[in-house]
Amino acid sequence: MILKYSQHLFKISAGMLLFFLFFSISFFGQTFTDSNLPIVIITTDIDPNTSMPLPIVDDPRILASMKIIQHPDGSRNYLSDSATLDFLNYEGRINIEIRGSSSQDLPKKGYGLTTLQADNVTVNNSGLLGMPSENDWILNPLAFDPSLIRDYLSYNLSRLMGNYATRTVYCEVIINGEYQGLYLFEEKIKADANRVNILKITASDNTAPNVTGGYITKSDKVTGGDPVAWQMASYAGGTDFIHDWPKPETVTAQQNAYIYEQFLSLASTANANNTSINNGFSSLIDIPSFVDFMIINELASNADGYQLSTYFHKDRNGKLRAGPIWDFNLTYGNDLFAYGLDRSKTDVWQFSDGGNEGAKFWTDLFNNPTFKCYLSRRWNELIQPNQPLKQNSLVLFIDNAVSLISEAIVRENQKWGTIPNHALEIENMKMFLFLRTNWLTSHLGSYAACNSIVTPALVIDKINYNPGTSVAFPISNDQEFIEIKNTQSTSVNLTGYYFKELGVTYRFPNNSSMAAYQSIYLASNAVVFQSRYGLVPFGQFTRNLSNKSQKLVLADAFGNTIDTVEYFDTLPWPDADGNGNFLSLISTNLDNNLASSWVAMSSDLLAKESFLASEKVLVFPNPVSDFLNIQGITGAIKIKIYDSFGKMITTLTSGESALKVDFSSFASGIYLLSISDDTGVNIHKIIKR
After folding, report:
1. What is the model's pLDDT at position 31?
2. CA torsion angle for 502, 229, 220, 234 (degrees, to 10)?
3. Peptide bond preceding 107: is omega within 30 degrees of 0, i.e. cis?
4. Alpha-carbon span 161 to 157, nearest angstrom
5. What pLDDT score was predicted for residue 19?
6. Hey, CA dihedral for 301, 307, 308, 313, is it positive or negative?
7. CA distance to 278, 521, 616, 643, per residue, from 682 (Å)
8. In terms of C-beta density within 10 A (0-12 exposed, 13-18 middle, 19 or more buried), how is residue 195 classed?
9. Rounded to the nearest 5°, which phi and psi values hold at 258?
10. Is 546 within 8 Å of 570 (Cβ atoms)?
11. Which end of the chain is more exposed for a tag (fewer CB within 10 A), N or C?
């Protein structure tokens, strides 16, 4: 295949390549000048021996420069924009290599690259194409996929299901002046707060609790010289496991032994059908992540699923989790047909098809009635109207993806000739999904046994995510806390309960409990918490609360949500961001996911909650038009009134046992009334008519 392009090359003393395009690249009579997609231009450094651009190879990485043309307003991108700073999403140095396994057999290559600073050594964290800032990236060539959308569809579906999957942006790529076609610019799987959100384990973390995480482990074929860490039996052979983090060359014997033991325990408990929340597989793994991982692999009928490109991760003190998903090109009826393979079918279980089945625990989990019930329940939830796996939702997503890349498809096929009939390929995918979803629905069985799980009335009602500092307590993170209140009249056995969203890790000890109406504190540093607030915390969580936004999800051992709160440090949330305040729920009867249900309270009042019981303090009428009556107070009190955003409107003091507060001049809306004395504080939500 011959590609003609117009360019001038000039050699300069620094050995760098100045690449001046005439803003047109011609192939098969078509001129590439612009695209509705971002345009990535990579120019490798000059080889001093040949005075030609260095070829990109599998190993080692070579140095290059990269420009990404993307109009910030989303309008059309032109090659002529390569010299206009306002239209460059990135302009800088990179190192780059060919990546992939079977895909390296193809003329069109995939690439791994790292963004670098000008010194060609220091990484340059950059937020490319709207994705969170990082330095490790992949140019996915869409190998063996004539639809050009299988990875894009799968990763997006996984995110719509609530899981992390690599973010992707379609682009068109030029390397050393030669048009390379359509690619997905995407995130590399990596331990990072915006990717796999685990705490990176280091070489010195060899004893508990540090040795417990965080890990990224994969079952995969061996490429790039990475050794097999261990092998596990499958019902159709064996499965190789490889360390992704820590790297094989840095993992210690203690770390290898620890994470291997986690997988062995999963295998033995799953094989024994041990569902005990004390010591069964539910005590080891995050059930929702394993369920979702199986659903997306089975929906796609992933021919490589479970055996290859299958990732797991585990945070410090946390449960073992499945995912993120990766490498979904042999899916939705597609396979390596040129190699005589045809395995992605509408009517098979990929974890038990006699081929790439993966470790035995996948089949054992599926055969466990409790796990399968949760699998069926989740599947039937995801195929409901407006859910991501509903047939019409899938068709709409596919149509939008095809529309996005429609003009690039033509250029891709002219360049590589690998798309015999794209329209037919897409129609076949849609039909495959129709048949596949129906087959899965009919074969997953009943979920009645786990459809009406009753969870206890536990409420997250205090959050101190960015405590203020002082001379006595100079470290903000050490003062963080979360309060959980049991609002029911019976005690709760907390065995197996945990926070299931990554970021903050805590698992309640076996046989621990909360008494009726009891409140408990979880602290980031138990010693500092007791010293700072004069209270003994129930337990200590791992890692720290975000100072921006975080989702806290309290769940039982099987991942059933008990309570969830997602807070923010911006309006309309009350201001508790580093100013000595914490978030306090006004009433456990309110929805704690609403900013209006919270107020910012001084941390100095945390240990002073012996104030008169709320039922003895009468506040009426509510709603109020003119005057609000407060009765049942003894001694001097201070009254503060806040608007619904947590901003203080006024402060009053009184020594009377009964008083009136004039609301007549207040605008209609919701207000917060704080009544406090030296022993504590009482909060009321007031509606002004």
Report:
1. 81
2. -100
3. no
4. 6
5. 34
6. positive
7. 39, 19, 11, 16
8. buried
9. -65, -50
10. no
11. N
